[in-house]
Amino acid sequence: MNKPRRADAQQNRERILKIAREALAASPDASLNSIAKAAGVGPGTLYRHFPSREALVLALYRHEIQQLVGLAPALAAQHPPLTALRLWFERLAHYGRIKRGLAHVLHAAMNDGVLRETYGPMVGAIDLLLRACEASGSIRKGVNAEDVLLLMGFLWRIEPGREGEARAKRLLGLVMNGLQSES
């Protein structure tokens, strides 16, 4: 049974993840010591939470997926369905730029358990948004959430930077146009 973390330990963990996201997005080669220093913790604190680079990257991956999954119902409650879907895709695009820099480490650290833990919730989040769009008549009927997740994999291949952001925006526009109903 996992013991609940102390409040300060949880704050340290969250701060490390935030700094790691920024540092690894800027440079996949950022050292764990530089991340610890930027987070204002000692290396021992970082290693207590994340005993290896792979453990940190997997924790960051899980955290980002949880954020994306949790964002879907919030967006669906706050925006018209098609707008919610677009906003969610934009957040996925942002995550794709982060993931691109971590792809080699993430691929090496990924296992079936982590994939099972994250894949289903991602498909569920997309499905929630697609069904809302379908019910409003803003997208064609029968769009498969797993197909959309596979399609959105292009985001992981886009180079970072302004040019990459512009390309992601254009490609997201194509996806959105392709999903919309013809009526």
Structure characterization notes:
This protein has 183 residues and is mainly alpha-helical. The protein folds into 2 domains: 1-51, Homeodomain-like (Arc Repressor Mutant, subunit A), CATH 1.10.10.60; 53-179, Tetracycline Repressor, domain 2 (Orthogonal Bundle), CATH 1.10.357. Helices cover 77% and strands 0% of the residues. The protein has 8 helices and no strands. Helix 5 (81-109) crosses helix 8 (162-179). The longest helix is centred in the middle third of the chain and has 29 residues, at 81-109. The radius of gyration is 18 Å and the shape is elongated. The N and C termini lie far apart (54 Å).
SSE diagram, text form:
Layout: H1 7-26, H2 32-39, H3 43-49, H4 53-78, H5 81-109, H6 112-136, H7 145-151, H8 162-179
Helix pairs in contact: 1-2, 1-5, 4-5, 4-6, 5-6, 5-8, 6-7
Put the structure in a nutshell:
This protein has 183 residues and is an all-alpha fold. It has helices at 7-26, 32-39, 43-49, 53-78, 81-109, 112-136, 145-151, 162-179.
Which structural class best describes the helix and strand composition?
mainly alpha
Largest pleated sheet:
none
N-to-C span:
54 Å
Corresponding CATH superfamily of the largest domain: Tetracycline Repressor, domain 2
The number of helices is 8
**How many structural domains in the coordinates?**
2
Oligomeric status of the shown chains? Answer: single chain
SSE order: HHHHHHHH
What coarse outline follows from CA principal-axis ratios?
A: elongated
Please give the radius of gyration in angstroms. Answer: 18 Å
**Which percent range fits the helix content?**
over 70%
The count of β-strands is 0
How large is the share of residues in beta strands?
A: under 5%
CATH architecture of the largest domain: Orthogonal Bundle
- Please report the first level of CATH classification, the CATH class of the largest domain: Mainly Alpha
